[in-house]
Specification:
The complex is a heterodimer. Helix content of chain A is about 35%, strand content about 20%. Chain A folds into two domains: about 270 residues, Thiamin diphosphate (ThDP)-binding fold, Pyr/PP domains (Rossmann fold, 3-Layer(aba) Sandwich); about 110 residues, Rossmann fold (3-Layer(aba) Sandwich). Chain A is built from 13 helices and 15 strands. By secondary structure, chain B is of the alpha/beta class. An eight-stranded mixed β-sheet of chain B has the order 2-1-3-4-6-5-8-7, sandwiched between helices. The model of chain B has no long low-confidence stretch (mean pLDDT about 95). Chains A and B meet through strand 2, helix 3, helix 5 and strand 9 of A and strand 2, helix 2, helix 4 and helix 9 of B.
Chain lengths: ~400, ~260
């Protein structure tokens, strides 16, 4: 296979593709089951895992479509295995129903969406960040979701590991939104040593065999211990609204409690799910907000303008959902201008406008032609805002 | 016990025959996983004391594939409706069969979509009435046995809710079989399909199955009757076992000193 340029030194330094980083990070987090379907620009994740998993006692399967892939992942997760799939926009659209099932039945799993130009078949080999809102609302019904992203491989490794951690702690599917740039580019990365990043393992019930186990009855701390399929507790799992035993119910009180529970378990814990990086925000009167590949250009122009004395900073979001409203509000409080940099028609910018005290100060610097947004693109937007023309 | 099925529904017979098969086999209930889709048929799992998984319309086999591949020692029972298995679920059906993954797919065929009020399914007969076929269906139905066989299933059988003793024996054979087993059960929906097409009550519908089916092994010519029995029972490499063999070979190769990364 690939990786001809990999070299191992005492500190495990590699030169890897973003997709390969995802695969390695998932294995680091304890991945033992992957089901997927080829789609550009995510296929390398499946390819690498098809090679790595059987060598370490894991299981890989290429299913007949993306829907089957996520369904198989959910089935495997119920047996106690950490499980993941990877896809891009068209496959992500297909997976929405199953994402809702994992949300409703509270089954941990990770879904990687390496975004590409859309809509529809779009631009399979080009970059975009157009699936952000879909990650939040793609599956029907009221629900909360966790979606993470990263702009560079060192962070990407950690983000993927955290995705598995969050999925276990919150008993929820977690989406990792990449883009074609980060997914396909090669970059230096130091692979973390075992134990360097803390892992959250499956919380299994302490209820012994023979005693009633309630799969959907929270502990005092709000967490719901699980029991492996094939283990000593037999219980029901369904996508229907259900009671604490997992059996279907249409009683209004049960439905009300369940919808609130699914929503609140994530939306009330945003601080535990918050990952981000900030640069020079303390004195910034221009604040750039960005994520993924766009953040690389934002970082570049920020450092470039700092060097000539501009008071500019960058807030790089790594948790996109639940959206960090309070963080954004705080960091933008003293800004004259807030510029959201993204490769779509404005998805996160809407959340930023809703979060800040003065939405009229929020602007969008974007690009939707399949090519990466450049530092110059961002600089031009800044100049227009300041009335200086390009 | 309280359940959602109509009086006269055939699904209860299927449940009974299946549970008696499992009981005769003395399977440990903790080693049995029942995975269903969506529909009247798929509510069967809520009445069974195994690890039960009520999934999405058409997707039972995909979920079951994940469970089985992760834990190959588990016994997988996958009851589905006719539309559930062969309409929306058609793709997963043919691929699970192609893989010959060890599970028992049960097509509870009452020739309709009962839960949603009696629409035609890919197994409804041509010319018959349904709520979405008010002038009669125009399509030919699948032959589920032929489809399963062509797709690669290694145990294929058909029975009916009338032939309940044979049905239970067939279930036992299907579960014992190491590979993808398909059992099509001709069942009755007297509430919708039966009423719309003047088939009589549940008993009359079951008697129709008695009078219009013929054992596969019979020397008589079928003469328009539906064949029942075990159509094929062959041994081919099973998917999970093949994967385990491959992983084992990789492990032995690694022990011989290759740099396994």
């Amino acid at each position: 296979m690939t990786d001809a340029v990999e070299k191992k030194t005492a500190d495990d330094i590699r030169f890897l593709q973003g997709n390969e980083v995802c695969a390695e990070a998932a294995l680091y987090a304890g991945l033992r089951f992957f089901a997927g379907y080829p789609i550009t620009p995510s296929t390398e994740i499946a390819e690498r895992l098809s090679e790595r998993l059987p060598r370490i006692g894991g299981r890989f399967i290429q299913m007949e479509d993306e829907i089957g892939s996520l369904c198989a992942v959910i089935g495997a997760s119920l047996t106690g295995a950490k499980a993941m799939t990877a896809t891009s926009g068209p496959g992500f659209s297909l997976m929405q129903e199953a994402i809702g099932f994992a949300v409703m039945a509270e089954i941990p799993c990770v879904i990687i969406d390496v975004q590409r130009g859309g809509p529809s078949t779009g631009l399979p080999t080009r970059a975009a960040q157009g699936d952000v809102m879909q990650a939040r609302w793609g599956t029907h019904g009221d629900h909360a979701i966790v979606a993470l992203t990263a702009s560079n491989h060192q962070d990407l490794f950690r983000i993927v590991v955290e995705a598995f951690n969050f999925s276990e702690v919150f008993r929820s599917p977690v989406i990792v939104l990449l883009d074609e740039v980060v997914g396909h580019m090669r970059e230096k990365i130091r692979l973390p040593a075992p134990g360097e990043i803390e892992l959250s393992e499956r919380l299994t019930t302490s209820v012994p065999g023979g005693v009633d186990y309630h799969p959907y009855f929270p502990r005092e701390d709000g967490r719901l211990p699980m029991s492996d399929f094939g283990g000593v507790h037999r219980y029901n799992v369904t996508g229907l609204v259900h009671d604490m035993w997992g059996f279907p119910s249409d009683r209004p009180a049960v439905a009300n409690d369940l919808v609130h529970h699914l929503y609140n378990k994530i939306e009330n814990r945003t601080e535990s799910l918050l990952l981000y990086r900030e640069y020079h925000l303390e004195d910034a009167d221009t604040v750039l907000i960005s994520y993924g590949a766009s953040a690389r250009s934002a970082l570049h122009i920020m450092e470039n303008r700092r060097a000539v004395g501009m008071r500019i900073g960058l807030l790089e979001l790594q948790t996109l959902w639940p959206f960090p409203e309070e963080l954004v509000r705080q960091k933008c409080r003293k800004a004259r201008f807030v510029i959201v940099v993204e490769m779509n028609m404005g998805q996160i910018v809407r959340e930023v406008k809703a979060a800040v005290d003065e939405p009229e100060r929020v602007f969008l610097a974007n690009r939707v032609d399949g090519t990466m947004i450049t530092p110059t693109d961002i600089k031009n937007v800044m100049r227009i805002i300041e009335g200086k023309g390009v | 016990m309280p359940h959602i099925w109509c009086p006269g529904c055939g699904h209860g017979i299927v449940l009974g025959a299946l549970l008696r098969a499992v009981e005769r086999m003395e399977l440990d209930r903790n080693s049995v996983v029942m995975v269903s889709g969506i529909g009247c048929s798929s509510r069967i799992e809520g009445y069974a004391d195994f690890h039960t998984l009520h999934t999405l319309h058409g997707r039972a086999l995909a979920f079951a594939t994940g469970v089985k591949l992760a834990r190959p020692e588990l016994t997988m029972l996958v009851p589905m409706g006719d539309g559930d298995a062969l309409a929306i679920g058609g793709n997963h059906f043919i691929h699970a069969a192609r893989r010959n993954i060890d599970m028992t797919a049960i097509i509870m065929n009452n020739l309709t979509y009962g839960m949603t009020g009696g629409q035609s399914s890919p197994l409804s007969a041509c010319g018959e009435y349904a709520t979405t076929a008010p002038y009669g269906t125009l399509e030919q139905p699948f032959d589920a046995v032929a489809l399963a066989t062509a797709a690669g299933a290694t145990f294929v059988a058909r029975s009916t809710t009338y032939h309940v003793q044979e049905l239970s024996r067939i279930f036992e054979q299907a579960i014992r079989h190491k590979g993808f087993s398909v059992v099509e059960v001709l069942s009755q929906c007297p509430t919708y399909y039966g009423r719309k097409n003047h088939k009589g009550d549940a008993v009359e519908m079951m008697e129709w199955y008695r009078d219009n089916t013929i054992p596969f092994s019979s020397p008589e010519s079928p003469d328009g009757k539906i064949r029942t029995g075990v159509f094929s029972d062959v041994d081919k490499p099973e998917y999970c076992a093949s994967y385990a063999d491959m992983a084992g070979a990789l492990a032995r190769e690694g022990e011989k000193g290759g740099d396994g990364r």
